[in-house]
Amino acid sequence: MRRLAVLVTLMLVAGWSLAQEKPRLHLMLVNDDGIDAPGLAALVRGLQDGYRLTVVAPAVEQSGVGHGITFRTPVLVEERPAVDGIRRFAVHAQPATCARIGVGNLLANDPPALVLSGINRGDNAGQSTWISGTLGGAREAALMALPAIAISAAHPRGGEPKWAAVGQWARLVVDDLVAAGLPRPGQVVKVEIPHPATAARGVRVNRMGLEPPVDQGYHEKAGPHGERLFVSSWTPPDHDAAGTDIDALIKGFVSVTPLSIDQSDLAALPALAAVPWSSVLPATKPAS
Fold first, then answer.
1. Whole-angstrom Cα distance, residue 238 to residue 78?
2. Considering the entire predicted model, what is its pTM?
3. Per-residue pLDDT at 11 exceeds 70
4. Edge-to-edge strand ranges of the sheet holding 203-205
5. What is the pLDDT of residues 82-126, one digit of tens each?
6. Strands 254-260, 187-193: parallel, antiparallel or unpaired by DSSP?
C-alpha cells in the first residue's frame, strides 16, 4: 500500500512538473540566401532545442532584393519534407513576400511570436541595411506588427563565416532579447556577427553607420557579341564613427541595432513646415 502511495505521489509530481513547463516560443525563420543556405541551417541548429521553429524561406537565393514584394504574379509555395520535426516551406519569391505569406497565410492559425531573418552570409552593416533582402524579410514582419530580428555574419573575401560559432552567438543574442521582452511588436533589431565569430569580443549596442562603401557601382565590359555589360562591384567601408555597427564589426564585436519602420526625418519637419507652399493651381488657358 505504501509503495502504491509513493508511486501515485511521483506520478502527481511528474504531472505537475509537465503542467508547469511553458510551451516553447514559436519562431518563423526567413532569409535571403535561400532555403538550403548554410546560414539558415546554422540558425536552425542554434535555436531548435529551445524554440519551436517553422521555416518559410525563398526557394532560391534572393540577395540584395531589399523590400521587394511579388504582387502581379501568383507565388508558388512548396512544402519541403520536415527535418527534425521542423516544417519547411520553399517560396518562389523575395524574403519580404515570404514573410507576408508565412505570417498571413501559412501560419495564420499558428502565428509566430517572433520572426527571425538570416543568418545572412555577409554583414549588413551601414548602408547595406537599405538593400538587404535579409532586412526586407524582417521589416515586412514588423509592418505586420510582429517583432523581428535580422541576423547577418561577416566573412573573409572568398571564404565562409565560422557557422557553428555564428549559430551560437545568434542563440545567445536571441535568448537575451526574448528574456528582455524585445524586440517590441513592429520593431526590428539588426544583429551583425563579426569574423571570426569564434573570437568575438562581446556585444555592443550601436546605431546604423552611414559611411559609404569604398566601392559600390557597376563596371562596364564587353560581352561575347559586343554587348555592353555592367558588372556590380562592392567593397565595404573600412572605417566609421565610434558607436556605429560598422565600427563595432571592425573591432570584433557583435553589433545590435534597433531599427524603426518610421522613416520620418523629424529634424527636417520645421524647415518644411516653414515653406510658403502654394495653395492653388496656377491658372491655365483652355485648350484650343
1. 41
2. 0.88
3. no
4. 77-83, 86-91, 52-58, 26-30, 114-121, 148-153, 187-193, 254-260, 203-205
5. 999 999 999 999 999 999 999 999 999 999 999 999 999 999 999
6. antiparallel
Give the CB-side neighbour count of residue 234, counting CA atoms within 13 A.
Answer: 11
State the Cα–Cα distance between residues 270 and 186, nearest whole angstrom: 27
Write the pLDDT tens digit of every residue in 158-211.
889 999 999 999 999 999 999 999 999 999 999 999 999 999 999 999 999 998
Identity of the residue numbered 231: V
- Using CA atoms, how far apart are residues 6 and 24, in angstroms rounded to an integer? 31
Strand partners, 149: 116, 189
What is d(CA 104, CA 16) in angstroms, rounded to the nearest whole number? 36
CA dist 60 and 31 (Å) reads: 10
Quote the cell numbers at residue 40.
Answer: 539558415
| Cell numbers that stand for 283 in this block | 491658372
CATH 3.55.50.30 assigned to domain 23-211+238-262? The reply is no
